[in-house]
Design goal:
Keywords: Signal. This protein is an alpha+beta fold and 216 residues long. It is 21% helix and 34% strand.
Length: 216
C-alpha cells in the first residue's frame, strides 16, 4: 500500500508543481495582473468528498499541461515565457480519484500550436514506459470521444498504465482550445477504474471559462 501511495503522490503532482516560476519576458509581465483562478472549477462543481490539495499560478509556482513524461515528448509541458496559467487539483483519497483543472492563456497563435502537440500524443505515443517513484509504469494511450462543441478544437485521451506490482494507473484527459486559451482536465486514479469525471465536468469548465475570462 505504501508503494501505491507513493506512486499516487507523484502522478497527482503532474499538472500542478511547486517549483518557482521562471524568468518572464515583457509579454509575461504585461499579463501579470491576469488572474485565471476564477475560471477554474470549485469544490461545488465536483461530487461530494473532493477537497483541494494543490494549486498554482505563474506567480507562486509552475503550471504545466502534459507532464514529466520523457517517453512521450508530445506530453512535455506547453507553458513557458509568454503564457499565463492557473491550475488546481482536487482529491477524494490517497489513491484518488485526482481531478486537475488547468487553464493557460497563450500569445496569439500559441494555443493552436500547443493543441497540435498535445493531440499528437495519441499517435506518437501509443505506448511508452517510464519510471515514476521508483516504479516502471507501462502506459498505453487510446483516443476518447469529446464533444466538438466545447471549443474550436478538443481532444480526449485515456492513459492506462500497468506495473510489475499489479498497480494500475488510469488517467482520462480532455484538452480544449477556446481562442488563445487551452483548458485541461485530468482525472487520475491509482489501483481503481477511472472515475469518469472529465466527461461530466468538461462542459462546466468550458462555461466557467467563458463567463469569467474575456476571450475564452
Amino acid at each position: 500500500m505504501r508503494m501505491v501511495h507513493r506512486l499516487a503522490a507523484v502522478l497527482a503532482a503532474v499538472a500542478v508543481t511547486g517549483s518557482p516560476a521562471t524568468a518572464a519576458n515583457a509579454q509575461t509581465q504585461a499579463r501579470a495582473a491576469e488572474d485565471l483562478r476564477p475560471a477554474l472549477l470549485t469544490p461545488a462543481d465536483l461530487p461530494e468528498g473532493f477537497v483541494p490539495i494543490a494549486a498554482a499560478t505563474d506567480d507562486d509556482g509552475a503550471v504545466t499541461l502534459g507532464g514529466n513524461f520523457p517517453g512521450c515528448p508530445s506530453l512535455d509541458p506547453v507553458t513557458g515565457d509568454g503564457t499565463t496559467a492557473a491550475a488546481v487539483t482536487y482529491s477524494k483519497g490517497a489513491v484518488g480519484p485526482y481531478l486537475t483543472d488547468a487553464l493557460v492563456h497563450f500569445p496569439a497563435g500559441g494555443a493552436a500550436t500547443a493543441m497540435d502537440r498535445l493531440t499528437a500524443a495519441v499517435t506518437t505515443c501509443k505506448s511508452f514506459s517510464q519510471e515514476l517513484a521508483g516504479i516502471t509504469v507501462r502506459f498505453t494511450l487510446t483516443p476518447a470521444q469529446v464533444p466538438a462543441t466545447l471549443g474550436e478544437k478538443a481532444f480526449g485521451v485515456r492513459m492506462t498504465g500497468d506495473t510489475d506490482f499489479g498497480i494500475a494507473v488510469t488517467a482520462d484527459i480532455i484538452a480544449v482550445r477556446r481562442g488563445d486559451f487551452v483548458l485541461w482536465l485530468n482525472d487520475m486514479t491509482v489501483g481503481t477504474a477511472g472515475a469518469g469525471l472529465v466527461g461530466t465536468l468538461a462542459r462546466t469548465a468550458a462555461d466557467r471559462c467563458a463567463q469569467q475570462v474575456k476571450g475564452c
